[in-house]
Structures are given as C-alpha cells and as structure tokens.
Amino acid sequence: MASDASFPLAATPAMPEQAIDDPVRSRTGAIAWSLFLFALALACTVALGAWTGLTGDDVLQTLITAPLWMVAAITGLTVLQIWCSAWKWRRVLEMTGSSQQRVPSSFYYGCTALAAFLSHFLTVYLASIIVRGWAVKRWYGLAASQGAGTSLFEQVFDVIVLVVMAVPALIVWSLGGTLAQWSAVTIAALLAGVLSLRFIDPAVRVVAVLERFAPRLRKLVELFQRSAAAGLLSQRFMLEIYAISVLRYFTILARIPLLIIAFGLPLAMSDAIPGFTIVQATQLAALTPGQLGIREWTWSGVLALRGYDLQVAARFAIDLRIVGMLAMTLAALPAFGLLRRRRQP
Known about the structure:
By secondary structure, this protein is an all-alpha fold. About 75% of the residues lie in helices and about 0% in strands. Mean pLDDT is about 80; it is low at about 1-5 and about 10-25.
C-alpha cells in the first residue's frame, strides 16, 4: 500500500493541531461509553436469566455439555463469517487504489477477527473502525481514515442485508405463513435487494440536484462523487459486495439449527429461523457491545410471542450467546499470531 493513497470516503484536508486532538478524545470517549454500555447490557442479561430462573450453573452446564461437533461446526462458520468480512474489506481497499503492494490474506483476516472479537466489548462498528484504522496505519503507513472509511463502506452492505432478511419474516408471520413460504419470500427479497442497487446512481444524481437548493448536502454529494470516481458505486462491484454480505449472513443463520439439534431444544425451525432475522435486525442500532442484552431480550420476546415458555426462550438466547462467544474466541485466536508477525515496512 502506498502511504499517499487517498480513500474517496474520507476527506483529508489540513487540520489545525487542536482539531487533530479532537478525534482522539472523541474515540476515547466512545470506548468509555461502549464499556459502560457493556456493563449495563451484561446486567440486563443477568437480570433476564434471574427472572426466568436460569443460574450460573446452567451457564456452566451449557459449556460442559456442548457437543464437540457443534462447537467445531459453529467455529468453522464463524471463521467463514470473518473471512467474508475480510474479503469485502480487501476488495474495497483494492478498488480505491489503497492496495498498491501485495498484502497477504492473513492481514485482512487478522484485523477482521480481532475486530469481531472486540465487538463483544465495544459496539461492532466502533471495533472495526479502531482495529482496521490502527492496522493500516501501523503496518502500511496509511491514515487511520483509510481503514475506518473502507470498513464503514463494506459494512453498509451488511446493513442492507439485515433489512432485506428481516422483512420476509414480518410479512410471512403476519399472514400465518410456513417456513417454505418464508423461504420463497426471502429469495424474492434478496433479488429485490439486487435490483435496488440499480437505484444508487439515480439517487446520487437526485442528491446532486438537491444540493443546489440545500448547500448542507454538499459534503454528501462530494462523498458520493469520490466513491463513484473510485468505482465503488459501479453495479458490478456493489453486486459483488452484496453477494458476499449475503453469504456472510447465512453463515450466522446456519448456527440456529445446529444449536437446536445439539441441545435438543423444543423449538420449531419454522419459528427459530425466521425469528433470527428479526433479532439480527437489532444490530441496526448497535446500541450495546455485541447487542448484549438487546439480543437476549428480543429473542425471548419473539419466541414468547410464538407461544414458547419464556424460560425456554431465554435459555436458547443465552446458550446462543455463550456458544457464539466461545466460537468467536477460537476463530480469533490466530489473529494475534498473524498480526504479531507483521512488521512496519
């Protein structure tokens, strides 16, 4: 990577010394706020367990009785999930011309795995910005905004997929549909997501026209123009990133049936799988680290509305959290070794 590369989503004007310090204080404040939210969310999760009668022994029992085949399978899916995110980030960096020297795949995986692990303690978007921004500056001499901007761009498509996948469950459940009908509507929604990418370019032109009447939109217009100039808004490239985001989503979704089968939980796939898409959509807000507390309470509410006992619903949500954190830790372990071997050029 060349140190003078510029990322189209991040402006790099000269800044006074005091202005340079502001992002540091802002980032420190964001980390402190995330840690506070983590503690609060953990308390809410513990409260859910206590309310439904779950104890620390139940949590320990989950770890002890978790079948090795399930842990291995979910860890493998987690590795694939991280690899998909790393692949998207790599493609965005290459498209913007930031990758002008050979960068090994291990660098992208290591950064993404470390960010994913830290997302259990910081909000997911903040973790990615910090780790990737730090990494490209530490090892390739780029501005931290290079890593942060490209990271945010690839995650936009994860957000699109979150919305696309949540809509079918809401439609089918409101009509009393089946799992097969949900599958059909989901396929249609994913195809609609592909078609919606065609409206990005017209939307950019509309915003450019509106900028004449609303000068405040100028920065947004410039952002779109820089992105388009780098090729990030081409139909082919956006379709590629969208497809990888869909694949990444299904690596997470596939954990649900594995957990139900492994623990013999009394949950129907027709409820748990569509329900997951609604719960996963809470990531849009990214209010707490790893959606801790929010995801558990949402799972409990969604399954309770489907007629399940609240304790069963809470047990499933907490088991999913425990196994997910274990798998993420195992998948992220290589990241420390991969990044330690890197040297400043």
